[in-house]
Amino acid sequence: MINELIEKRFSPYSFSDKEIAKEDLLKLFDAARKSPSSYNEQPWRFIVGTKLNKETYNKIYDTLMEANKEWANQASVLILTITANEFSKNGNKNNHSEYDLGQAVAYLTLQAMELDIYLHQMAGFSREKAKENFNIPNDFTPITVIALGYKNEDDKKPEKGRRNIEELVYEESFGKNK
Length: 178
Ligand SMILES: Cc1cc2nc3c(=O)[nH]c(=O)nc-3n(C[C@H](O)[C@H](O)[C@H](O)COP(=O)(O)O)c2cc1C
What we know:
Blueprint: H1 4-8, H2 22-33, E1 44-50, H3 54-61, H4 66-72, E2 77-84, H5 97-114, E3 117-122, H6 127-133, E4 140-150, H7 165-168
Antiparallel strand pairs: 1-2, 2-4, 3-4
Helix pairs in contact: 2-5
The structure holds flavin mononucleotide (FMN).
């Protein structure tokens, strides 16, 4: 049996109207802040739009591709995730900044599950539009949009295929198990 928060997580396509309290939203970003990162650079940045702050919410929503627009407007919060392309201390390329952002979002996700808040991450959005809408400088890259909220009661976790451990984890050489 693995961690129950991991077991219950899935990416819903429908959300309830219930707003997320500001203090709970802050807990999610605090969890992300505690994530490890290469050279402790903490390259992730988040732009947060809530239905109480429609202007930012709409500007994030505007970047989504049509298929995601169809359902993502139910979420009470939309988050644009961004990462730094370079290390702040020397300007060298940070080859692990997307990895670090992903891990920070994993931390945020588990903290959210603890509070019964569900995420649906999306690659289907326009990076160019996001850069334009939020004046994102060229040394930062928008990576995903996250729809976040309480899920609908009747939205149940669907059965989704997962690769077998043997396909993902090798003991001898790449692709090879004993
Ligand atoms: C980086 C990333 C990008 C994704 N992009 C989209 C997307 O644009 N639209 C969508 O409906 N789902 C998107 N997903 C959700 C995945 O399809 C989903 O996580 C996967 O099918 C596994 O399902 P589960 O999260 O419910 O376990 C994305 C997930 C990740 C992590």
